[in-house]
Amino acid sequence: MLEKNFDFAEAEKRIYEDWEAAGAFKPAGDGAPFTIVIPPPNVTGSLHMGHALNNTLQDVLCRFERMRGRRVLWQPGTDHAGIATQMVVERQMMERQEPKRTEIGREAFVEKVWKWRHESGGQIINQLKRLGATCDWSRERFTMGENGEANDQMVKAVMKVFVDLYNEGLIYRDKRLVNWDPQFETAISDLEVENEEVDGHFWHFKYPLAGGETYEYVEKDEDGTVTLTETRDYISIATTRPETMLGDGAVAVHPSDERYAPLVGKLCEIPVGPKEHRRLIPIIADDYPDPDFGSGAVKITGGHDFNDYSVAKRANIPMYRLMDWKAAMRADGAPYAEEAAKAKALVEAGGAPDANYVDGINLVPDEYRGLDRFEARKRVVADIDAEGLMIAVEDKKIMQPFGDRSNVVIEPMLTDQWFADAETLAKPAIEAVEKGETRFVPENWAKTYFQWMRNIQPWCISRQLWWGHRIPAWYGPELDTDGCWKDNADIKTFVAESEEEFLQLAASYYGDKVRVNIYDEFAPGARGDEISGKIKPVEVDVARDPDVLDTWFSSGLWPFSTLGWPEETSELRTHYPNSVLVTAHDIIFFWVARMMMQGIHFMDDVPFGDVYIHALVLDEKGQKMSKSKGNVIDPLVLIDKFGADALRFTLAAQAAQGRNIRLSEQRVEGYRNFSTKLWNAARFAQMNDVKPDASFDPAAAKLTLNRWIIHEANECAKAVTRELEAYRFNDAAGAIYRFTWNVFCDWFLELAKPVFQGDDEAAKVETRAAGAFALGQILKLLHSFMPFVSEELWRKLGYDGALITAAWPQAEAKLENAAAADEMQWAIDLISSIRSVRQEMNVPVAAKIPLVFIGGGDDAAARLKTHDDVLKRLARLSEISVTDAAPKGAVQIVHGDGVAALPVADFIDLDAEKARLAKEQAKAEKEIATIDKKLANKNFVERAPAEVVEEQKSRRAGYEAELEKLNGALARLKGL
Hints:
The chain is an alpha/beta fold. The chain is globular and about 120 Å long. The two termini are about 50 Å apart.
């Protein structure tokens, strides 16, 4: 006999271990492959509610397809998470008061990270197991391989991709503006920058015209009427970052801006720095400045602003780097006077400046060198103001970029980085979605994908970290055509998949008798015999590129690298392309796009057929969860309290396409109650000897009750299958919930009680078998959502084998029985209507009232006779009769083709009931009026939090539904 309650805490661990031991998660059978790769969580991560939703939905699909006989592979693994992992280990070292990373060196630090990874990393994998995830854990992969060794297959995949793309000209090294994180001293992606609105300032400064030149400055209104005319010897610019003025290369105005037309081509002076060495910069015309914003003139600092960078590239404006890697003002180089002279010579020379030469120029005045950028800002503003060149300063809200992990202000920085030609790689990836080879669900996310891919910028793939895939590039001295090296000559870049391959390339280039010394960080050079001022090398020094690859570069290979690529493995042949990718919308840019580009390029096929984009999990008020708000809900806490099944079902039941999930503990508790309801129903069935009967043919059932429940189970299987195939998880969960609770528990078991308690043995046998069939279908259909309680009941109720590998219910035409369904629904609706009227009229619960049925013909009479006992018991009726007219004092209910009359006048105080209902009616109307007044208040709707407004609308809908019932009840009473 089943225990009184389901002990989920004990059962979940036991059942999961049984599944693992049986190899239930491995691909099996000869069915069509079904493949999902898990979005690899960070090795530093722990399970949050987004993970819980994402992996619940993946597991629902995997269990569904596994039971349908497909060869399911859910490929698991974790991401090495470059910045996050390096940050965790460095913090740990600091807490232990160990030497810093820079003190112990790269090799020792990387060794520490690997040790941490093997000892502490990947706890999220065990947390996913607690959720019930059925990944094939025997195939777990890590984006850096098992130990990061060169011969590791995951490492080889990354190296091959880099080298192949480099050789195809799709990876290159360039000096470009990137987002620079001064905390971690590395480039980061645009997608790792969070723009936040903060209090800031807008400073307006005068840039004096060269030589004291003047012009007539004229402003006009929209009608062309002159509103201001004055003689100026300056051009006005406004900036939120005065410290970057030191690196200005030009001032730009719009070609149509008449105010500044006389100035285009002239020079102006940057109003900061030693007066005798003030730099002159050109005033240029460009479409970028907005004549209606600020003064309409924009300073162009190509080395520290992304918009300015584009202008500087177009106009061949030198781009100066003002800061070091910690975002302090540069302190290197010659004194300012010498550096300013170099910049002046550049302007005079014209043409396209050499980026590396320009980068060597430090235009920070001596008195600002080494200052923090924000301290330098204060000094610059004060110095300009003291000279009388500050026009005004506005307090202004500005958008400021912060690193999503460091939380420090990101600095646009001109640095040497490796880039992938994303525009070229994106073209076939765009075309694949346009052609439908990969589709987004919901389809509106394809627009987001297209918008980003069609405007994609070069992908910065290098990071200045120590933890990650080291870029396979070596730099050595470049030889002249005569095979000799001249000091300060250009650098020769070698790109190879391994050090061994590099040495082969080096031997081919330098000669196999030349010794090659490899250093981590060293200026390439050579030693040997001097010939005519050049060196014929016998020994060369080369430097290994110190950077590592962007984490997303390796995870972008995930759909095929995890299957054994670059080897042609059987898994790769079987499971690529993957079937579906399940992920969140914010990963479209980070990951989906990368996988599409790299998968198509290297596998000549899309990485997956479908991309299902799930919603966000918000708190019950519709707010995003965050630690600062204190509204984070820990999935593991909910699992401990209510069980994994309850959490999983809650998430799936709310996973409607295009709608965010509002999660509360009460909802999870509600679905725990659903599990309890099922457990109690199964226990009741077991007590009545309901058990699987292998000889039972559901298509041959004779009793209407049994034909009906078999039909309904068949319809439920049809609905759940249809909705899961369409990724409508909430509709699938809703279908199985309604059938289990409303149909099987609330009605079938109640309707079956008279049979179980009766004397008809044949009816008992058939009803027990039909009940076992329906309950078995429930457990199968529910298993994807609530795997633990369903598996436990399956075993304890005597069904064959393990539920996880049982066959999915197939909807069959022979099990459809519309007539039985119509008859039973007729009886159920009649009982429900009578119960509703009794409640509305406040008829005492214990009172048994007569039912008089008018009309409906022979069918109604036959149904009333067939279901006489059930109707009397469940509707609390004293008798049932069929007549031609309703008796006096009876409430009438239209039911089918007839009318059900309930003589209630003898059971209630009509006047008292009318008064009670009228009072409730007035109360509901008052509440509706109060809410309507609030919602009509524009200030309330615009200023109140969205969740508060939504709550008011929800309350109004509830009162309106209540009022409708009260109006109906009063109308019935007035007719008595």
